[in-house]
Write a structure and sequence with these properties.
Blueprint: E1 10-16, E2 21-27, E3 34-36, E4 42-48, H1 56-59, H2 67-78
Parallel strand pairs: 1-4
Antiparallel strand pairs: 1-2, 3-4
Keywords: Ribonucleoprotein, Ribosomal protein
Protein name: Large ribosomal subunit protein bL31B
Subunit structure: Part of the 50S ribosomal subunit.
Length: 86
């Protein structure tokens, strides 16, 4: 790697306000706001709207779409698609 071209990576706390969860990881992001972590050290904190703790895909609370109804409506409108292609 070339020296002095890569951003500095440091420990940062990401705080998910929706799920009231925080986690410590490494990032190049920085913030003026600081928080004291469980180990007694102070780290920059970045507030995020969504993380794996609150995203519907990871929590299993996502809504199931009516795909069967959409497929049937498509088939009624445009045919079944069983015709041979030329």
């Amino acid at each position: 790697m070339k020296p002095r071209i890569h951003p500095v990576s440091r420990p940062v706390v990401f705080r998910d306000r929706a799920a009231d969860v925080a986690f410590l990881t490494r990032s190049t992001a920085d913030s003026g706001e600081r928080v004291t972590w469980e180990d007694g050290n102070t780290y920059p904190v970045i507030d995020v709207e969504t993380s794996s703790a609150s995203h519907p895909f990871y929590t299993g609370s996502r809504q199931v779409l009516d795909t069967a109804g959409r497929v049937e409506r498509f088939r009624r409108r445009y045919g079944t698609g069983d015709a041979p292609r030329g």
